[in-house]
Model the fold of this input.
Amino acid sequence: RRMPPGARTSIAPYKVYPLWEVLSQAASRLPQKVAVIDGEREFTFSQLDEKSDRLAAALAGLGVEKADRVGLFAPNCAEFIIGFFGIIKAGATVTPVNAAYRERELAHQLGNAGAKVIIAHQALLPVVQAARGELPELETVIVIGEASGVDLSLEELLSKHRPEPPRVSIDPREDLAVLPSSSGTTGLPKGVMLTHFNLTSNLEQFLNRPGEASIMREEDVVLVHLPLFHSYGMTVLMNAAIASGATQVHMARFDMEQFLALCSRHRVTMLVTVPPVILLITQVPDIEKYDLSSMRVCISGAAPLSEELQQRLEGLTGIPTIQGYGLTETSPITNLDYLEPERRRSGSIGPALADTEEKVVDSEDGVRELPRGEVGELLIKGPQVMKGYWMNPEETAETIKDGWLYTGDLARMDEEGYVYIVDRKKELIKYKGFQVAPAEMEALLLEHPQVLDVAVVGKPDVEAGELPKAYVVAKGTGLTADCTGLEIDPQGNFVQVRPAFSGNILAHIRTRTRPQMATVRYKIMSSLCRDTGRQGEIIRQQAEILPSLLTITARENRDKTNITEAEVIVSGGAGLQKAADFSLLSDLAGLLGGTVGSSRRLVDSGWIGKEHQVGFSGHTVKPRIYIACGISGSPQHLAGMRESDIIIAINSDPSAPIFKIADYGIIGDLYEVVPRLIDRIKRERCH
Done:
């Protein structure tokens, strides 16, 4: 059951060597080949190897010894690679830091790692300086760029030292090469102990695939837009490109126009990316002006890629697209679909890599192995599985049991071993492929003097995957931490909503399944609207207003189309330009099991019957959801809406009064937004 007939061929035994040999061997094999294109700069493999040798010597001269931790805080650039390999050649451990971190997060990661030295890009120096007071163990800051004061310049260090790294004895199976940060399956970020062997064996699994098409070749040109501080970029892009002899084209910050221009200019052959970028590619209106004909494969990871989006990219660009899967705790790759069309399966992350065992177990007891096709928690065992969490044996014991790593992801496996990720058991929010720990955000929000309690949950978003959303109980509102607000019976049904609620009760949200979560959000928003005042949320240029909520509402309230009984009303106002526009609103209302409404002016114009008039001198309505399309919001009209549980406003004028009472607002052209919203709800209904 764990190793099906279609499992990949074993490539054991694995060579055991230090990770830095990946670069040394590439430099020996391809000394003059361009390894990195960074803007207008180019670096050969031999140059990267020599400069990292010089850095290793410099670090040794600064007192860095074997097993010391050195921070690496930089966007994508050639110096990141030099810093990475220079650190491990000195026998130290790299702790790569998210380049978007602020001082609090930086201090937490470096403090937890006990880093003595940090190599930081000059653009990020203010963050380092702000955090330095919280880092008594941090002795030295090496700057990529111009240094000042007591800080050291990377360029000057390289020029002052010969390319003679210290001789360090490494046990690849035991000694740590990298200590990245991960939230794991729950809780706050913690260090993930990845040994040299974890990372070299994972490279072998990724690149050496007997009986399959090569995934990355020496002649490949790879666009590196994913951050190298993330394990996905570090292994699948940086280290794999070096090991295979491919050329990397670096992007420090993502910009779609530059992204496509670089692909065209450098004849990029391989794209390693994430679903949000794939979505953006499919939305580029004039993509045909960019030459993508050199692209032979696209690999998507870090977040689930829907079958529909995968096929949309292939249909639009002709680029064969496959999906992979992994975790920071697994170095990171564990699964990858096949390149061969006859073996590839859309929507699947593919079978496990060579010498990787997987099974799906009951998500409640965590032990009983489930039959093929049933959904449960995915467990993984293999040479790429981490050594454990840094100085955290309790979390390690919770995550790795009897050699099996518990991923916290819900999946199903078919008879041939192809795996499909269904959802997440763990409470982490996945934002554009990055893990966001609700507990960390809650702790931050609770520091505000006016916050009594808070719960953070994930809100579905088509571009980001999920957006963090906080429900806050403010001090001085009469709400206390022991207010109930929401009662749940033993079967998990929501049986009562009270006017007040607290974050303690909201914690239940993170234990619910997706449909239940949407239901909870609906009831909580209803309670907020009635009892604690409205809080507008402007979603600029997006048609993503909780489609799950809308579809649930539609299923529960079909055929209530009488204007006085309707629980969903889609109403038009002066923003509509012609009578035919009401067909657009009717389509949206029909999807939601509701009816259309209108202002008095449109009734007087004869565009719609008086039976649909709402607001001033019209029908009094109390729908659960009121969608106001092109309604500016006269006092009379606003007064007629206030009885609604949820108000959604669509208007091109950001100063329209309607936004002052709307729970959700879209600033945008009605004729662009409504069709996108209709399309999104239809797709959500299909899922």
User: Anything to note?
Assistant: The chain has a mean pLDDT of 80. The radius of gyration is 28 Å.
